[in-house]
Design a protein that fits this description.
The chain crosses the membrane at residues 35-56. Keywords: Membrane, Transmembrane, Transmembrane helix. By secondary structure, this protein is mainly alpha-helical. The chain has one domain (2-62). It contains two helices and two strands; from the N terminus they run βααβ. It has a two-stranded antiparallel ribbon with strand order 1-2. It is elongated, with a radius of gyration of 17 Å. It starts with a strand and ends in an 8-residue tail after the last strand. The mean pLDDT is 88.
Length: 70
């Protein structure tokens, strides 16, 4: 089986990188604890769980065609 990234997992990657960057920048720009940052945490958590369930459920699995070349 070949595992291909789903649209949700790609979105999740963008959200995780954004959350990490904004979390590191929040004390510098004084927006630590801002409701938007909290919402981004929940959104990232939700997409992480959903993406993980896609891989566990097999929705991200695609059969690989094998060639007979040697």
């Amino acid at each position: 089986m070949n595992i291909t990234p789903t649209l949700v997992s790609k979105l999740n990657t963008v959200l995780q990188v954004s959350l990490a960057a904004l979390s590191l920048a929040s004390p510098v720009f004084d927006f630590a604890g801002h409701p938007a940052l909290t919402g981004l945490c929940f959104l990232t958590g939700g997409t992480t769980i959903y993406s993980g369930l896609q891989y566990i459920g097999g929705d991200a699995m695609r059969p690989v065609k094998r060639s007979n070349k040697k």
